[in-house]
Write the structure tokens for this entry.
Amino acid sequence: MAPRTRLAKRRDHVLFDAKIKAVHWLKRNKRRIATAFHAVLRERHAVDRHRIVVEWEHAYERVLDATLVHMDEEIWGQTDGRVIELHDRIAEYGVCRVTATLAHEALHNTFLMRRKTRSRRWVFMSCDDEHEAMERLGLC
Ligand SMILES: [Zn+2]
């Protein structure tokens, strides 16, 4: 295997730093985040607090497991709810950008609501609802 280049080391360092910062930010702002997400669910779907579950530990884990991958698309990050992938060049834009992107991706698929349907299943919020809550948090 070829030796890691200085650039690769720098990227890994920035990513590591940003992961720690993103988890801290999520932990520090738990209440404020929950308030924003709850408000969107209440206003848009009349879902109240006791029908919402937040998987914080899952969010922290996904941040810590995030990887840099080569993407052709012009996006900084993506998640399928299990893993978070960041554009491999994002680290060049600094720790702040990476931290904000990790926090953003971590807040996807973290809030679940129980629907008032017959099955009463827990479902994730829609991407649009999640983005609305994130916008209220100043994350977008
Ligand atoms: Zn998003």
About this structure: Residues 104, 108, 131 surround zinc ion (CB under 6 Å). The helical segments are 6-28, 30-45, 56-64, 95-106, 127-136.
